[in-house]
Amino acid sequence: MKKNLCYIVLLLSVTFVFQNCEVQDDNKVPEAIAINNFIWKGLNLYYLWQEDVPKLADDRFANQSELNTYLYGFSRPQDLFQQLLNKPKSLYPNPGEAIDRFSVIFSDYNELEGILTGTTKNNGADFRLYYKDATETSVFGVVRYILPNSDAALKNIQRGAIFYAINGQPLTKDNYRSLLSNDSYTMNFANYDSGNITPNGQSVTLTKSIISENPVYLTTVINSGIHKIGYLMYNGFYPNYESQLNAAFSNLRSQGITQLVLDLRYNSGGSVATATRLASLITGQFTNQVFAKEQWNAKLDDYYNSTNPSNLLNLFTNKLGNNETLSSLNLSKVYILTSESTASASELVINGLKPYINVVQIGDKTVGKNVGSVTLYDSPNFSKTNSSTKHRYAMQPIVLKIVNKIGFGDYINGLQPTIELKEDFGNLGVLGDTNEPLLNLAINTIIGSGRPLPKNRIRNFEILQDSRTIARLKSEMYVDLK
Prior knowledge:
By secondary structure, the chain is α+β, with helices and mostly antiparallel strands.
């Protein structure tokens, strides 16, 4: 989906900003508030809820001078950004109170770009944090998987390891961010003991480095009677790894699989274009049909609908972004494993496929992120080209809602599984092994074993965060503007 940003920005700035006076003149913006000016104008043009934020109204300021006066009131760009969002979680923290749970701003766009492409500084131990009890004070973590070629991959730490402290200091809701943000730290482990988290005296020291994560984590084929089941664990929609994703599907196809189990439990999102290509790899028989529709704010929707409505559509395809032919499976049914970490582009795949094929969702409900973002830089057309050399601020605001072919996209409370089974960290199992609980359930569903559904026996601990959401922009679904 390509959009001519220069033309759009020119058209809309003339039409909407400062309607009762001259067109904006950025030369009138003092350097002291240049970043704030970028934030206001970017959100005024692109923010999905622009009409719901009075301070972003097109007629809120009569001229640039009035806007400047307002912008001088914020010494930190982050504060202005939060004030211009529609009930952000930072200001409306109570459950169900926030509207915008996902817009973010970065002081260094290099960090933002790294996260969007799967390149981050980490030690390779992906984990989830839980509250120990109803007081929601003490915290513990459970390791979900280990990244290859990381420090954790070289250490004595496995999936299912429970840690209660860092550097000997017990984790709490107030200190976990600072303790886990260090480049090097020691994890102190514990056992799960009849509902209690009991320290066991074991520990391991982990050191972070810059790692580029290949999201195609695991691919295998399982033979069970007449069934040849492909299993693929996919952990992020990173465009730079689309060829690896296509190669994984080519491998599965060459082995003649008859069913596919797609594991998105720890996949919190990424590129809409990559999600569209994954859906096309699963199918293949719907090329050029509508996979998803985008809904922007009123003025951008009006612009796109009046100039080129196809800009709002994401179509099934038979090619990657580099024109490589897809190794599609042409399936009419897919089994998708989910958890409460499954978000955004992962949810898009599930929701976008449902009007076309039978999607059997197994596991837990998903996050409920049906909105997407773009990266905005401080440049005349908000692209990185000709961006300011005086700072590296960039925004990733929510700019669109996304729906499937039949217009459904209202799942802010998460997509409910067809067959529910929450992960039991007392019995996580080995990923890709046929005895791993969720994969085993998917296999038994496929072969129709008639076995009763397994039940969670572990105490239900309240979830706090996971290592992806701690890294700020990991529950993401974004589009590129070119």
